[in-house]
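Contributing new records

If you add data, match the layout below exactly. Sequence lines come first and carry their own label; structure lines follow with theirs. Keep one chain per record. Anything else will be rejected by the validation script.
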Amino acid sequence: MIEERFDAIVVGAGMAGNAAALTMAKRGLKVLQLERGEYAGSKNVQGAILYADMLEQLISDFRDDAPLERHVVEQRFWMMDHRSHVGVHYRSDDFNEERPNRYTIIRAQFDKWFSSKVRQAGATVLCETTVTELVQDTYGKVIGIRTDRQDGEIHADVVVLAEGVNGLLGTRARLRERPKPDNVALAVKEMHFLPRETIEARFNLRGDEGVVIEAAGTISGGMTGMGFLYANKECISVGIGCLVSDFQRTAETPYGLLDHFKRHPSVAPLIEGSEVKEYSAHLIPEGGYRAIPQLYGDGWVVVGDAAQLNNAIHREGSNLAMTSGRIAAEAILHLKSRGLAMTAEHLARYKKTLDRSFVIKDLKKYKDMPQLMHTNSQNFFLTYPQLVSKAMQSYLRVDGTPKIDKEKLTLRAFVNARSWRGLFGDAVRFARAWR
């Protein structure tokens, strides 16, 4: 039975939880971290993107031994219809720098490594432990947690909720509402294994260079969602995700969408002959700024995915998670150093600091984009990709038709599909949501 009291309890050992636990443990706080998986990352078999700048603030020499896959030198964006894609990409040799900016990683390996750094810093890390509820005093202040172990209650001055987007502790304790289906995406992903030299040849890579492909269009069947491919050293992460509410509305299956995406003429040649060894599903917060819940209260703070801190427009999540975990930990350290109680009034420091960071500033900039994409998914994910594809094919096909006639036909196709008023309205709404 764990009888001692802790300065802080961190629930979850993902990016946000590890960042919070590491920051506090390195500064001498007595930290207990709890993870329901067999080990940190055991539930995360998927690949992902790591943003180096945020991790470097936590572990300056992480490149020495972290399990990194490839550093990203090229980003591709595809707008797809059923048989083609229109794309833009950016590739720069500047990304072959001494300290690269982005890496592909495999979370099962990376999270385990990250957790080892938390242990080395002095935190107590317990895996295979599910936190069943928060313990509150008669005034509603969180004073600890209960687990599925026979350990009774474990008390702490503050509890950091890093339990993921669908975490139930906060909702069970009525600290926040459960995320709505239109604020959460369900993503499915497979790991396709190929020889390293095959991956490098297909993606035009050398050494540890990497590429990321993000795709939108008819692949999501008119639902709000995206597909993606990440090149790792000896495998390719292939996946697609859409809003849970859209899956409910259409009765489409995630694995059906993924299978359709893999068979697309632009994707199939990249994974041809691969061996699929891993399949996973993962919930991702997609609600943006307007979906952020209460971030602090008497004796608790919430960080990472549990706080809906994910930039769906730029596909950024791990950097927001690590930054929120670090800022929450620094707020707690500040209060501890001054002997202040972990009350809502004092823990408001966490949100004030977070509001000044890129995390909230970026989410606030795109606060209207999630709703726009959701309410106009048929246009943005079906109609426009098909129109753009037809326009590009007409432009590139030389068949004796005068160019002016082709331009007229293309314009007529857009107007017939959306009308002049619809085209203008879509442009205005998109511009307003983007600014």
